[in-house]
Amino acid sequence: MKRPAQHHFHVSLTSSVRTRLTLWYLAMVAFIMCLFGGSLYVTQTFLNSDAAESRLETQLYQDSQQFAQIYRQALPGRQALTALRLNQSSQEMVLLLRPDGSVLDARGPLTSSEIQQLRVRAEQNSEMIDLTTSQNHSYGWWARDTTYRVLITPVLNQNARVASLLVGLPRPHSISLLEIWLFHGTLALLVAAIGGYWLAGKALRPVKMITRTANEISATDLRRRLHLQSRDEFGELAATFDHMLARLEAAFKRQAQFTADASHELRTPLTIIDLEINRALTQLEQPEAYRHVLEQIQAENEQMTATVNSLLLLARADTGQMTLDLQEVDLSDIALASVERLLPLARQSQVTLATGDLPEVLVRGDPQYLGQMMTNLIENGIKYSSGIGKRVYIELACEQERRGVVRVQDDGPGISNDHLPYLFERFYRVDKARSRRQKGPALSSKPGYGEPGGSGLGLSIVQWIVQAHGGEIRVESKIGAGTLFEVRLPLLNMAEE
Ligand code: ADP
């Protein structure tokens, strides 16, 4: 059997799924790293908020002293406090209260409810208070309430408290590390999950397609193919799959052909037998004619038995049920025995059987099957060469003390090159029209080897026998010049090694 040619499929580095997945994972990891880097940076910034807070308090003390100074000078003169220039920052709130709680001056981002709150808190006289306002100062997209840190300073005039000064600055936002970590972690996980899902879906799309097609393929319809065009690993898988399907399809076709051929092969003799019986029943009267019909039926029966036996042998060989009775065999004995058996046939066909060198060639084999092999080859030579002056020549040789060689050469019609590759296939005949019997059943005279041609199983069996003995067979032929079959078998000493 010829091994089907191995399919070579080259997946280039750039087109490979492996490279693509690697690149995608790389991109994903890079993105996640950026995300975490960013979150670390933000965290770092907020961790510095302690320093920012102490800076804020220093600012508050400085501003309060400065503003208190300005107010202290302005207060006795009863000049309009609102006209004073305080040089405060835009975020800064300033509130000046009389000891009785009434408002002397209010600046910066202050609502009346905040003023009210601050008045209440100032009475409690604590120095530093926090005031949460409902104003939204957006830092990024998470907006939240702003907390002001407010410093309460008494404004003294000759040691008497004339007013209370409240100066407030917004506190830096503080976000807990856990919050940042949770937020960015969730985001990264989400991105990884979506990206991973998308990537897996994209990568596995061809697999889905292969599965779908494989499901659609039934044993009776093996013509479907995947034809996946991509030049990556999946393309390779699909191509391998397609090749497997092609081989399966060919095997199924061979199987179907074999069944059809076998049925046909058996139907012909059955038809002939039927015709002969009908003829005997309806037309014949002479006992001699009945005898002839019976001989005819017997011949057909022998032919059928031979075909069935050949089929059985090949079927058993296929399933590995054949066992060889291996022993030391001299091929020259086998050759001589076959020649002797076939001499009557050769004589009848007017073919000369000639032997060349027949040295002792010892092989390890089954004498019965080796005999069958030899007989089939010589018999073919006789059958297809038939005619005066034709010759079948048999010789043996040893090759490099490794192989025994059997040559069966005839000078018959030869076989054209077109047919040579198929010669060993089951039921293959070069001349399809030349079946076992060319004569009509009613005209056929003698059973046996009257006409060339057989069931087309002879060479298949020869090939199986040769291969089962670890050997090989080859054929050389030229139209008009004859055919040479050459069998090589391992010599006994080689087989034992
Ligand atoms: P068959 O039973 O028909 O002889 P084989 O398997 O022995 O079947 O041979 C297959 C075919 O090969 C034959 O039908 C014949 O056409 C061709 N063939 C075999 N041996 C020879 C030969 N020596 N010379 C010419 N043709 C041959």
Offer a concise description of the structure.
The chain is 49% helix and 18% strand.
Present as ligands are: adenosine-5'-diphosphate
Q: Give the end-to-end Cα distance, rounded to a whole number of Å.
A: 26 Å
- Give the helix/strand class: alpha+beta
Strand runs, count: 12
Shape: rod-shaped
- N-to-C series of helices and strands: HHEEHEEEHHHEHEEHEEHEEH
Major sheet, described briefly?
5 strands, antiparallel
For the biggest β-sheet, the strand order reads 2-1-5-4-3
Poorly predicted tracts of residues = 1-5, 137-141, 434-452
Please tally the helical runs, counting DSSP H or I stretches of 4 or more residues.
10
Strand content: 15-25%
Mean pLDDT: 82
Give me the Rg, rounded: 53 Å
Q: Helix coverage percent of residues?
A: 40-55%
Secondary-structure map:
Elements: H1 17-47, H2 49-74, E1 93-97, E2 103-107, H3 112-123, E3 128-136, E4 145-157, E5 160-170, H4 177-216, H5 233-282, H6 287-318, E6 327-330, H7 331-349, E7 351-355, E8 362-365, H8 367-385, E9 390-399, E10 403-410, H9 458-468, E11 472-478, E12 482-490, H10 492-496
Parallel strand pairs: 7-9
Antiparallel strand pairs: 1-2, 1-5, 3-4, 4-5, 6-8, 9-10, 10-12, 11-12
Helix pairs in contact: 1-4, 5-6, 6-9, 7-8, 8-9
Bound molecules: adenosine-5'-diphosphate.
